[in-house]
């Protein structure tokens, strides 16, 4: 992969179009138009996280992302738990994107969605992505670039058009809650709408998941991750703002009276033909997003299995001799989301809580890497890859960790539906994943079966500096 192919992979995984469309209605009914500011808040926080990741991947440009980073910064057991949580969060994210994409498909062909049809379309997305991923990295990069163009047209192009030519509301609405808080304080409503930004800004780490398939990865992957955040943030702002300002019935949307507002906004502003064209573009973005997610998840599973850390690791770590991709890991990255789609078919109210679990799991895994990096800094680690923050690295690492804790608190706040299972499904899901992971870790001891290097960040940084002439080699 080139820099642009790698950036396209991360961008289509992050997918501002998918993020904005999927949770636009939820954000407005929960926090009103001011929920747009979560895009800015989360983008700033995740940019700091991407800078920390950039220093790590620049020193360790190897497959798997979160797993090898945590292993080299801390140890095998710590990395095992980080990767275990991350794998489940990723497969649930694949489920959520496939499910949210069914609305585009139905709107494009004027089909009334039923639970059974939703299941079939979601499974179709998963199988289509699997088929493309089987062909190899070259086609993955091509489709990711196509998805990138679809994203940019769909979010920046349409967003600017709506802002300039179809504006029906004033910019002041972004400071108007429009009554979502009822008679109480607006603060709880605003924090409840944070999911709009938190769901949007992950995926940039996928640039590092395929590190061994990228040309000059130590330099290009950090740049690709930062570009993903910056371009994704600007795109999401244009898109979200365009829909809000062009909505002819904004108060009805905020009141929850419009179930799927974006197609209605598009048809009223672009006309029936324009709306259909946009839906085709959006559908390409959703397919590309599922494709990138599936590819990233399979590389993590492969990296994990290659070190003997998973049941069936020999089977999971096999690489196709023709396409050079981990086909068996791809099958797993398709099958588990398909099972979750079946679970949502049985109870459609689980989609939003399951999405919240995916976000929380991703943030847990991310912050385990951020914490491990900070621990190494306290022990004297100075990143030695081509990308380095220098003296600002320590401060960026601390603020990135503080941001992560802030996100945890928001994500862990229980719902208020009155149903214990639906309100606490995020906690229950994370609890089950962590407990099962700990039982397997201490009962089977997969870490003892691996001889992969661990906790060597300081030693490797010293060796890199010696080899590149940054420090004099000690003489004995």
TrEMBL record:
Keywords, in A-Z order: Membrane, Transmembrane, Transmembrane helix, Transport
Membrane-topology descriptor: Multi-pass membrane protein
Location in or out of the cell: Membrane
Keyword match Membrane: yes
Any one Pfam family match given in the protein's UniProt record, by short name: AA_permease_2
Residue spans crossing the bilayer: 7-30, 36-57, 78-101, 113-134, 146-165, 185-204, 224-246, 277-304, 325-346, 352-374, 394-412, 424-443
Cited PANTHER family: AMINO-ACID PERMEASE BAT1, OS04G0435100 PROTEIN
Name of protein: Amino acid permease
Species per Swiss-Prot/TrEMBL record: Leucobacter coleopterorum
